[in-house]
Amino acid sequence: MEHEFTKKIKEVLSKHFGKHSEAIFSKSEIIQYLNIKTKSASKGSKSRGSFANLYAIYVLVEDYILKKFHKQGNYSKYKGAIFTNLFKRQRQLPFGQKLQNHALNHRMNEEFRKYFPLSQNIPILRNPETNRYWINQNTLKIQINGNNINLAEAVIEIIDAYIVAKKAAFEKFIQFCENAKKLPKKKVVDIVASLIEPTVDARIFEIVSYSVLKYYYHDQVIYWGYEIDKIIKDSLKLYKTGRTNANDGGIDFVMKPLGRFFQVTETVDVHKYFLDIDKIEKYPITFVIKSLDSVNIIRNKIKKQAKNLYSINAIVERYMKCIEEIINVKILIKRFTEAVKQGYLKNILAEIIKQSKIEFSYSDDFDVEEYVNSED
Description:
By secondary structure, this protein is α+β, with helices and mostly antiparallel strands.
């Protein structure tokens, strides 16, 4: 498989290994894996980045190089890198601030096996008793025409180049959003609507979903109170409760004063849905789903999986009743259109910029009110 970033990978290999670069590209599993994982580099900020698994490789290879095992020493006698150091380093890297430990512990190796089922090596070695980690040196070493070659420095340079490409794409996206107020309204509407499509990065989808729903509910009013003669008039407010797509076990949005919970997902896996329901003790929850399927089709898919998972109809129905509402892409676009009609296009765009800067750990000095009130 070749894509736009493949040229950069081959450029790095040529720089390091000259005439052997083509043979290395075709024979090295770790290089082939990097080629697969970097295909989104040229697709802009809306395509999903592959930072978790790439950074798991990066921090281990970096540790390997810092201790000069790529040039000398017996790596087999190395006690291994300490998990907390690796984890901290991952989160210091661009876009890595919210990464969890899953890639280091198993996900990277599992995915590698999926792409290379016949391989005798997995990239990450781990001793769970000591919580020490190693990069599998066999994945970094390759023999080409009798030459023993170590790929460590090239691996780091390839991932660094990918980071630069994705960072540039995201900066372009932010700059574009900030300047969008100068564009015709229809153009801006089309652009925001495109950010809700199923093909966009899950983080962008969640950010835009939140921004749209926040202002869709913004003007909706309820009356409530604890005493009949002390009724309160209150607008619905949607709050974002954690980092985007963080795998942190939390709920994505909460609405006051109704106490509604919202969870954003891109899957129709019943295990994921029922896990979310269980963690809030079967409290009703609204799912915002990155899917073009109709609500009925989505609900039926979930129910069919649930029946296969549980043999008791009462259990299935108990879980299904906890799905308060399903908001798919079509409904989200409809609610975006309604919010625009209410005059909140600028607010939605400003919220997208603000949440994107927070999510990707850029400067947080963006003033939403100033952006909304500024002249077009």
